[in-house]
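Can you make up a protein sequence with its backbone structure tokens?

===
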Amino acid sequence: MGVEYNVKPLAWELARDGGAWLRQRGVAFPEGVTEGRFPTYLEALSALAAVEGWQVEGGQTGTGSGWSLQVEAGRRYAILKANEQLEGSRPGVPAFYFYRGWPCLVVEVLERLARVCGPFVVVSPDAVALVAAGTEPGQAWVDLF
């Protein structure tokens, strides 16, 4: 799966345009979400490594301004890459995206991270999903076309 998935906390997306972009695409979301953030490397590693059956490997850059994690679940995989140069980063907490991955595993990973950080919006070239704690992988994606 050679697709990149852009990720933003829902709170960031709502602050940007009040949710207009999501509404135009038919994505339902909870109103009034003001909290949400990207995870630190240690938060992401801890949350994902705790999932039974997942193999998680990765590391931080030498400067600490970025990190990457690869999650393998059987034959499925997802690669997260974080960099402070990405929009939405905070000092010491870089934004991340999925470099590649299986769509359902992308949602499963974000659901685990949402338990710690709040809901996320993820966009692929042809679909968008809102992922909160408890989101079912097969019900998250909304086609853009």
About this structure: The chain has a mean pLDDT of 90.
